[in-house]
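Final report, closing paragraph on structural work. Over the funding period we assembled a curated collection of sequence-structure pairs, and we close with a single example.
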Amino acid sequence: MIGANVNGIRVEDLFQCYDKYNFLYQEKKEKMQYLFPMIKANWDMALSMPWENFLLLTYSRPEKDLFASVSAWRSTLRSYCIQHMVSNQAENTRLILLHFLNILENDITEKNAIQVYYQPKTRFANNMFSHLHKAAGTEHSHLSPYSYLSYPVKPVPLHWDRVFAEELNKTNQKGIIDFIKREKGDFYSWVQDFDSDDFTLSTLDKEYSKYGLTRTRQVVAYKDESHKILGVSVINRASTGLNFSLLENSCEIILDSQHPIWLLNEVIKSILYHISNLYRQSDLDSVPLLVAPEYEGLIQAYGGKSMRTYNYFTCDNSVFEEWRSYLKSELKEVTEHLKIKNLESKAS
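Its predicted structure, as stored:
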């Protein structure tokens, strides 16, 4: 077990480590610059929360220039969003994740789950989460790619008035959830708490508000004249910067894959018009958008800027033991590799 600290580092020291070990690369720092004072203040408040809602693990040995960190925040009542896996040594990356899994075992939430967004070019994360998805199957996990775009907060002229927006409520819940399940699968819907009556995550928001923070959500369906759902937007709202890519305030767009592209183009216009007006009230100067890669061009046509590609992985805690075994196997390989390198270094 690595001697990691739980929610015990000062925000200033944490951000200095992020900077030192190039987690806060220049492009990200420039994009976050106008929000940085607010982000620091929000992290200060977040670190005062119980670890069940906000968890930061850090391992630091300055005398040996070693640092590792991982954080997670309660995204839905059923799940943590894991993020910011930072380490300057492969061995400590595996160790701190093992420590993280041990802590999650003590969570009071039954059948809790994790969510994570990672770039597929990150080999360690891609290999690990692909393995877990294959081992768990669709009953206990979900894996899908996203294009991540930044859309300027501006109104989009509506040329087609036959699409109307309808917020998720108890009356229309079944139809909207059936649509989401068809497009994203049952497990995804379960992790997002869509099957509960708390569509806006108000119960979770009450926990966040005790510490000066917020976490809410709005789910909106876009329907045609016959009330058929053409698309859905999942609009996440939270205290700015809980995730440095602003995923806590992202809007996921789910489109009906059975419809032709020309029709989906009209739906996209309606969605962009709707969310632009909503995000005008936020602290952000652009909307963080998540959409299936095949629809990225539709948003680019209206001024969306492509940022990066993410893989999204989620699983429940029935997968944790397989995850632990994977990390232990990885750790053994890394340790053996380091031993060989040390022997070669001494021999030379």
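DSSP finds eleven helices and twelve strands in the chain. The mean pLDDT is 92. We thank the funder for supporting this effort.
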